[in-house]
Amino acid sequence: MAGLKHIFENATVTRINPRFRHEMADAEKLLLCFQCGTCTAGCPVSRFSSFYNPRKIARMVQLGLKDRLLSDAALWLCTTCYTCIDNCPQGVEVANIVRSLRNLSVKERRVMPLISKKLALNILRSGYAYIIPESRIRRRITQGLPHLPRSNLKQIAKLFEVTDFLGVIENVETFEKVEVKE
Amino acid sequence: MKNSNPEYLIFLGCTIPYRLTSYEVSARKVLKTLGVKLVEMPDFNCCGYPIDLVNHELASALATRNLCLAEEKEMNILTLCNGCFGFLNKVNKMLKEDEGFRKKINKDLNEIGMEYKGKVEVKHLIHVLTEDVGFEKIRQNVKKSLSMIRVAQHTGCHLLRPSKYTLRDGLDGHTLLKELIELTGAECLDYVDEGECCGNPIIGVNEDIPFQMAREKLEHVKKVNAQALITVCPFCHIMYDLNQPLIERRFNERFRIPVLHYPQLLGLAMGFTPEELAINDLRVKPIELLNSIYNAE
Ligand code: SF4
Ligand code: SF4
Q1: Which one of A23, B134, B246, B291 has the fewest beta carbons within 10 angstroms of its own beta carbon?
Q2: How far apart (Å, rounded) are the C-alpha atoms in residues A125 and A127?
Q3: A79 Cα to the center of ligand 2, angstroms
Q4: Separation of alpha carbons B81 and B13, rounded Å
Q5: pLDDT band per the 50, 70, 90 thresholds, residue A10
Q6: B154 within 8 A of B229, measured Cβ to Cβ
Q7: CA geometry: angle at B192 spanning B187 and B193, to 5°?
Q8: CA of residue B82 to ligand 2 center, whole Å
Q9: How many structural domains compose chain A?
Q10: How far is the CA of A102 from the centre of ligand 2 (A)?
Q11: B124: part of which helix (H) or strand (E)?
Q12: Chain A closest CA to B144's CA: distance in Å?
């Protein structure tokens, strides 16, 4: 019985969601992927780590392996170099699929890289992705540079609110590093 | 026809004022001399690119807010950063082409009393130099030919791809920076994998992979004996200049390749001093490079 239970639990983990690809950007194009592997061959991240493989990601989305994909830490390794988009013979925009998966993972699992949370909070507080130190702002004068433009923080907060991100950012789990497993 | 009185809203982004004012200082100097008038953004927020991975809609709304600010000013945007260019330009084109997307983002923007109309264009520094200023005018402004030096270039991903957003009439993104470099008289060397990514966008979650990518790039550049690497993006620059000593230590290799912002190289050719171009801000000091430039006679 213990064995059966084990299998059942595994089955839950790899639950198949056939409508999953419709949650992606460019869902229709994804059907055209014939697994040629051109995307992976040209991907700089895959070249240094087989842990990351865009061809496999495209396949898993086709198969509807939603849970497995959304909890896969490798998702966060895409550098957005867009080589895969320009190389795919079928016009599949793999990098955009990876972006959709990341977005969904944030929305449904409430997890994101710590750095992303920090940058988002900085934008909310200052309009800039980094809090620019006073010394830097003063140095601009001696460098002959004009004042930095200010941000309308009320409007920025509103945009966070209407895109449902304010609640997410206040209540999200974060991770610091993606450990690469070969 | 070249635009004889180009005027742009300068969009600095976040990384340049935070860490790389040397790029801004040198760009403003050369653009002023070349007759490009820069107007400061009246209001600003991050271009949105760093948010795209966690929330595409918010990132697009942040980009669009900047486009709306430019529309109010009735001016096109000039960026120095590849990330800002890539994202603002892509969102601008998506809004123009995709009605559903425009409606959705405008609904967000309406909440803050704004509406995107699709009246402005976004250009990167290298587009303004080639399309508005023009090679002829740049050539006329070169006072000191840099024919004694040999360099290599790294254009950076978001100026090159996705090509459906980055291709511009008759101009190949892969050769633009080379041609701009050659206007200074310097030789621009070819090397292996010139279009390869710097790796910077993932450094916050993993250092191993980007450092290996950057190491490989520096090895390729060293192999052709380039005296400097020329960049046009703060992220690429941070990877190759600021992080170069870390990469050297990590892999126990020695590169010592100075990495200059393109307007620093052009500025030297236009007769500005290294001080005026904030060259001393660079992590890898270009001592030999400057020696060959100034002791060549
Ligand atoms: S290059 Fe395109 S068709 Fe080939 S595996 Fe990748 S996504 Fe599929
Ligand atoms: S965009 Fe991402 S998945 Fe595509 S080639 Fe670049 S790193 Fe790989």
Answers
A1: B291
A2: 6
A3: 6
A4: 7
A5: very low
A6: yes
A7: 110
A8: 17
A9: 2
A10: 14
A11: strand B122-124
A12: 24
At A122, the amino acid letter reads N
pLDDT at A16: 77
Which residues of chain B are modeled with pLDDT < 50?
A: 1
Show the tokens assigned to B21.
């004012």
Q: Which has more pLDDT, A181 or A111? A: A111
Residue span of the structural domain in which A122 resides: 113-175
pTM for this entry:
0.95
Task: Say if ligand 2 is within 6 A of residue A35 CB.
Answer: no
Tens digits of residue pLDDT in B253-294: 999 999 999 999 999 999 999 999 999 999 999 999 999 999
Give the pLDDT of residue A5: 43
Closest chain B residue to A144, measured at CA: B25
Task: Tell me what ipTM this predicted complex has.
Answer: 0.96
Express each pLDDT in A48-86 by its tens digit.
999 999 999 999 999 999 999 999 999 999 999 999 999
B16 and B91 inside one domain: yes
Q: Which two tokens stand for residue B265?
A: 């190289």
Q: Residue B150's beta-bridge partner residues?
A: B187
Residues 6+ apart with CB under 8 A from A5: none
Residue A180 lies inside a defined structural domain of this protein: no
How far off is chain A from B1, nearest CA to CA, in Å? 31
Decide if B55 touches A, using CB distance below 8 A: yes
Boundary (domain end) residue, out of A109, A135, A150 = A109
Which residue, of A84, A109, A134, is where some domain finishes?
A109
Same-domain pairing of A10 and A99 = yes
User: Which residues in chain A have their CB less than 8 angstroms from residue B157's CB?
Assistant: 79-83
